[in-house]
Specification:
GO terms for molecular function: ligase activity. With 178 residues, the protein is of the alpha+beta class. It has four helices and eight strands; from the N terminus they run βαβαββαβαβββ. The protein is globular.
Length: 178
């Protein structure tokens, strides 16, 4: 697979995620929109890699395709909430099963053309609220604390950003298919 849109070397950043399908995507997106979260337009997802600068999209696409082909589909189970506060103002759905598979994908993806040290340890999660005041984050964390749901992770999506936080889907790769 090759990228259709031309890119300027050194300007793009990559994001690789496990997309969240409906009906959970709509439910989680609507929650963020109701809260006035400035990132509500970002579709719900489990981040695998983000913000890594890209100079050779073809190498990245080949790398992501190879990692996806080598990984079998798996189940991710979410239960309850947690937060990254006080480091960052984020409340998220906790992964209670399948996190090890997300971590393995993260490690495999963040190699080769995407090798870049992470600023923080990798924690698989789905963001519920970000950048809001503590009282709102506390309310979200409590209100969603009993939430339980499951996701069949059968694909990963590759996004690109040219530095304007306007992430565009570049390609989607099924897991376990070469």
């Amino acid at each position: 697979m090759r990228i259709v849109r031309p890119v300027v070397a050194g300007q793009d950043r990559v994001g690789i995620v496990v997309p969240i399908p409906e009906p959970e995507a709509g439910r989680l997106g609507a929650l963020r929109a109701r809260l006035g979260d400035e990132f509500a337009m970002v579709p719900p997802h489990v981040t695998l890699v983000t913000g890594v600068p890209v100079t050779d999209w073809n190498a990245v696409v080949d790398h992501v395709a190879a990692v996806a082909a080598a990984a079998d589909p798996f189940t991710i189970q979410f239960e309850g909430t947690d937060t990254f506060r006080p480091i960052t103002p984020v409340v998220f759905c906790k992964v209670v099963a399948g996190g090890d598979r997300c971590t393995s994908l993260h490690a495999a993806l963040q190699a080769g053309p995407l090798a870049l040290p992470s600023a923080y340890p990798y924690v698989p999660h789905v963001t519920l609220a970000q950048g809001l005041d503590d009282a709102v984050l506390d309310q979200v964390q409590e209100a969603q604390s009993q939430d339980r749901w499951t996701l069949q992770a059968d694909r990963i999506s590759l996004f690109g950003d040219v530095g304007d936080n306007d992430w565009k889907l570049r390609a989607t790769f099924p897991l376990g298919v070469s």
